[in-house]
Design a protein that fits this description.
Chain A: One of its GO terms (cellular component) is plasma membrane. Chain A: GO terms for molecular function: NADH dehydrogenase (ubiquinone) activity. Chain A: It is found in: Cell membrane; Membrane. Chain A: Belongs to the CPA3 antiporters (TC 2.A.63) subunit D family. The complex is a heterodimer. Chain A has one domain (7-503). Chain A is 76% helix and 2% strand. Chain A has 22 helices and 2 strands. In chain A, helix 5 (114-130) packs antiparallel against helix 6 and helix 5 packs parallel to helix 11. The longest helix of chain A has 32 residues, at 158-189. Chain A is globular, with a radius of gyration of 22 Å. The N and C termini of chain A lie far apart (49 Å). Chain B is mainly alpha-helical. Chain B has one domain: Helix Hairpins (Orthogonal Bundle), CATH 1.10.287. Chain B contains 3 helices and no strands. The longest helix of chain B is centred in the C-terminal third of the chain and has 32 residues, at 70-101. The radius of gyration of chain B is 21 Å and the shape is elongated. The chains are: A mainly alpha, B mainly alpha. The interface between A and B is large, with 48 and 48 residues.
Chain lengths: 521, 120
């Protein structure tokens, strides 16, 4: 390993997208150069993230303080196994989606500023994964949001504007609630550094108040992650965006909410988990069920997939509700598997529209003959999402369900299994309608055009194939991934390494910020 | 002093929620603006009220004298800038939506979703 300083390792995954964003914005009138820079930027992000993962892979936690202000006063960045893994998978998705985005309607998107906004989104996401400070997390959320607003309404169709209005209002409302929680937490403890909060919150007399604040954060992050009952904005908005945009949204945006929940409820609010855990369990079950029922009812591929995001978030919450080391490991594994599979399914939905003529399952058909490779590539993520062995989803579901059985949460385990069966049903629906059914006139027309597009076909199918390859790798060679998830769960639950890395040996800030007289004259 | 601030927070919050629940885009923007400011006020109170002396270290001293708490001010300043940019975006988006969809009632905008009573 090259001896890079932790400061560089932690700032590169943020600095690379920032630089790419600036360059892409400057090259706005030169599409070819912009594409090259955008691809290079995504590859650079992947490289930077791999360097970061290399530095923390043996279990060390690295941290840095901005501007050299000592820990609880300055802004901290920190990375443990979970953060690093999330950044790596962000890098992977960045590369896959930027290759896909070169085809399928690239020019219109580029005119509307796709590349700068895309890297702005990545910037916000990696920042949120690496920050060690709650207020800073709010800022990264907002950076991510404003980029996602821009990407969502690109094209300016009527449906997009309608979806944009709902998406914008709900997300602004929720981040404002998050900010309120941050302010109240500061009033209670006098610090916003997450590691410092982990030390000082257990010393607060009024633990009921801490639990109340925890619920406020659960609400804010839960809405970001599309948890029941705050998920309605997601299926109302996601399906209006173009295929690469919705793929990167589906991969990363809700997962930032899940990551924030995992981080805050194993670190900051670990002390009140006994009070919050049952609430999370009920929410998890309701999220799984409502999501999958929504998916079963719809006939637009993207709406089916959007509802599946919701139901899959439920599985990750099961891990958080049970909160044994195995359960947290299950949640971590589930997040990583789901990012790959979901992005892949949305990319496939995009290819379905190009090769079959529409997103509407009732209007397309017969693609197993006109696009056999696509049919094959669809099977991998579809069955993985439903949780069939030997694919990545099987192991993720297996660990989550086993951990909830071990901890005595039988109802959660049974719900998870039943939802898995319904997931399989709606995946079979897509298969039957889009691939197996006799071709429709629209699909026959599109099939001819599809055969003629050689170069574009490669650009569309290469990322899909690569992501299917990752899914197969996790499925067939699961041991190192499960082992990694277990190690990262241990690190999350026993958070001494994290607090030690961020704070060093500094004494915890225990006094609330109240009496100014105590300060030196 | 705190009572006054708490009252102001309550009034702003109530007005914000009232405006957000109305079925008119312009009122919703105003609601979002008020909500942001209510939260800023809450952060300000949480960071303690009192002395108005600026947080500067006097010459020759090694620490701060009695002063105002600078951190909430920094947080609020950041939050104001962010909420300003987001509200600016929201106004433009709402204007476009109004222009394209011909209504300011968010409930009447059902372009992105199947019509009522129809699942797919």
């Amino acid at each position: 390993m090259t001896p890079l300083s932790p400061h560089l390792l932690l700032t590169l995954p943020v600095a690379v997208p920032l630089a790419t964003l600036a360059l892409c914005a400057l090259l706005h009138s030169r599409p070819r150069a912009q594409r090259a820079v955008s691809l290079l930027g995504s590859a650079g992000l992947l490289l930077a993230s791999l360097l970061l993962l290399g530095a923390v892979f043996d279990g060390a936690v690295i941290a840095t303080q901005f501007g050299d202000w000592a820990a609880p006063f300055g802004i901290s960045f920190a990375a443990d196994l979970l953060s690093a893994a999330m950044v790596v998978i962000t890098g992977l998705m960045a590369v896959a989606v930027s290759v896909y985005a070169l085809a399928d309607g690239a020019r219109e998107r580029e005119r509307a500023g796709f590349h700068p906004l895309y890297h702005g989104l990545l910037l916000g996401v990696t920042g949120a994964f690496l920050t060690g400070d709650l207020f800073n997390l709010y800022v990264w959320f907002e950076i991510m949001l404003i980029a996602s607003f821009g990407l969502l309404v690109q094209g300016g169709t009527r449906a997009q504007l309608d979806a944009g209005v709902k998406y914008v209002v709900l997300n602004l409302l929720v981040t404002t609630l998050f900010l309120l929680g941050v302010g109240l937490l500061y009033g209670l403890t006098g610090t916003l550094n997450m590691a410092d909060l982990a030390r000082s919150l257990p010393q607060v007399q009024n633990q009921g108040l801490v639990a109340t604040l925890a619920v406020l954060f659960l609400l804010a992050f839960g809405a970001k992650a599309a948890v029941f009952p705050l998920f309605f904005w997601l299926p109302a908005a996601y399906h209006t965006a173009s295929a690469p945009v919705v793929a990167i949204f589906a991969a990363l945006l809700t997962k930032v909410g899940v990551y924030a929940l995992l981080r805050c409820f194993t670190l900051v609010f670990a002390g009140v988990h006994g009070l919050i855990g049952p609430v999370v369990g009920v929410l998890a079950a309701l999220t799984m069920v409502t999501g999958v029922l929504g998916a079963a009812a719809h006939y637009d591929v993207r709406r089916i997939l959007s509802f599946h995001i919701v139901s899959q978030i439920g599985y990750m919450l099961v891990g958080l509700a049970v909160a044994t080391p195995l359960a947290i490991a299950g949640a971590v594994l589930y997040v990583l598997h789901h990012i790959v599979v979901k992005a892949n399914l949305f990319l496939i939905a995009g290819v379905l529209r190009v090769a079959g003529g529409s997103y509407d399952l009732k209007r397309i058909g017969g693609l197993h003959r006109s696009a056999p490779l696509l049919a094959l590539l669809f099977v991998v993520p579809a069955l993985s999402l439903a949780g069939l062995p030997p694919l990545s989803g099987f192991w993720a579901k297996f660990v989550v369900i086993r951990s909830s059985l071990e901890a005595g949460h039988v109802a959660l385990a049974v719900t998870a299994l039943a939802v898995g069966a319904l997931t399989l049903y709606s995946m079979l629906k897509i298969w039957n309608e889009a691939f197996w059914k006799a071709p429709t006139a629209l699909s026959q027309q599109a099939a001819g055009a599809w055969r003629d597009r050689g170069r574009e076909r490669v650009l569309l199918l290469a990322p899909v194939a690569a992501l299917a390859g990752i899914t197969l790798t996790i499925g067939l060679w699961s041991e190192p991934f499960v082992d990694f998830a277990l190690r990262s769960a241990d690190q999350l639950l026993g958070h001494e390494a994290y607090t030690q890395a961020v704070l060093g040996n500094a004494a915890p800030v225990t006094a609330p910020p109240a009496p100014p007289e105590e300060l030196l004259p | 002093m705190e009572t006054l601030y708490a009252l102001a927070f309550g009034v702003l919050l109530a007005a914000a929620l009232y405006l957000l629940m109305s079925r008119h885009l312009l009122r919703m923007v105003l609601g979002l603006l008020l909500l942001g400011n209510a939260v800023n006020l809450a952060i300000f109170v949480a960071g303690r009220l009192g002395s108005a002396v600026p947080p500067l270290v006097p010459e020759g001293a090694s620490g701060l004298a009695v002063s105002a708490n600078p951190l909430p001010q920094a947080l609020i300043l950041t939050a104001i800038v962010i909420s300003f940019s987001l509200v600016a975006f929201t106004v433009v988006l709402f204007e476009r939506a109004h222009h394209a969809l011909g209504t300011t009632d968010p409930d009447a905008m059902r372009e992105a979703e199947p019509a009522r009573g129809e699942t797919a």
